[in-house]
Amino acid sequence: MSLGDELRYLRAFHGGGNLMEIEDEIGLKPGTLRYMEQRYRRVGEDDEVLAKIATYYNVPLEKLQWHRKWYRKALSAYLQQAVESGTTAHFELRTDETLTGRVRWWDLGAFGLEPGGGEPFTVVQRHAVLNWEGATEGDNS
Amino acid sequence: MPEDLRTIRKQKKMSVNQLASRTGISIATLVQYEKGELEIPPADLHRLAKALYVGDWDINPRSSPPPRQEQPAKPPRPKKPPSERKPPSKPLPARDSQIAHLLTLAARFDIDQAALEAEIGKPLDELTQKEARHWNGHFMRRNAEEKPPKKSIDRKRAYLPEGVDGFELAYLQEQQEFSVPLYFTLFDGQTFEGTVVGFSPYQITIRESGGDEVTLNKLAIAYYCKGGGEA
Q: Which CATH architecture has domain A72-132?
């Protein structure tokens, strides 16, 4: 899960507050958190910024630093490759579940998974994906 | 007796272009040599002589200017028969875009259409293009001079990545159209089942079997599938 997705997840768990209000409360420059949540590549390199966010969401700084190593684009690349090849993809979710199936489509917010074996077509939210098969640290292809 | 470069070149049936490529001297320079505008320096003279298979002394370093060719006199233009003067054309009515622009400009000074028409002295739909141009210019100048405060624009919120994007939008529309029950699993473990009654970029509203409507925040959803099953 990319840092952006992780931050969105944390925000959702803290009541889904308004980004600008949170930025104001933490003491971040306007737009910082928004960029971190939305950008596909690495944003938020500053440990000081991460520390403020970690304190606000009450999570260890190391956890956010770990997520920083992942890119949203890496998941996009995996999804695209899965769509093109038609191979079975594996996703580890935040809910401690693992979903397996063929990716039929993907967009910025979600992807459509056909699990096979009579299971219904599932729309998975990208921010729910914690890990995926083939994910390697620093993969930003 | 040395001869002009042009004469020798013509005798050798060579074009300026060919001579330029043989000698490495530019066409423009050759033309100047031939017109006598420039004296041919010894180095170029040697190269030219070599290319033209003549001795250096056969080429006149300063060509005489070419004789001016007299242009044949143009036949006089036939005089047009005196035509009747056209009656002055009717002024064109102002374009819609001009009127719209005028209203926008006037609105910056809190002038509505009625006040604007009063100021102009005629209804807007009777304005000519010329008049509209004049009044637009008037308000543009006034705008530049007075700089009225800009009204805040009601900006649309930017789409966040968790918002409903292209494929998901199409999928939800299809499920809504056919009233397909969907089964939602949230991050906190809660589950909801119902048919989609509407959705916005960040929320999906479903109607449960009991008739209750529930609005789910997209950010809180982990995944959803067609009802009656679990992923």
A: Roll (2.30)
Q: Which of B79, B114, B146 is the last residue of a domain?
A: B146
| Nearby residues of B231 by Cβ (< 8 Å), 6 or more positions away | A97, A99, A113, A115, A119, A120, A122, A124, B185, B223, B225
- Domain limits at B219? 166-226
- Cβ contacts (< 8 Å) between B163 and chain A: which residues? 108-109
Those residues of chain B whose CB sits closer than 8 Å to some CB in chain A are 158-168, 171, 183, 185, 187-189, 217-231
Spans of all domains in chain A: 3-68, 72-132
The ranges of chain A with pLDDT < 70 are 39-45, 71, 134-141
Query: A33 to chain B: nearest residue by CA?
Result: B160
pLDDT tens per residue across span A32-61? 888 888 765 555 567 888 999 999 999 999
Q: Is residue B44 part of a domain?
A: yes
Name every residue whose Cβ is closer than 8 Å to that of residue B23 and which is 6 or more positions away in sequence: B30, B44, B47, B48, B50, B51
ipTM: 0.73
- Whole-number pLDDT of residue A51: 92
Q: For A3-68, CATH number?
A: 1.10.260.40
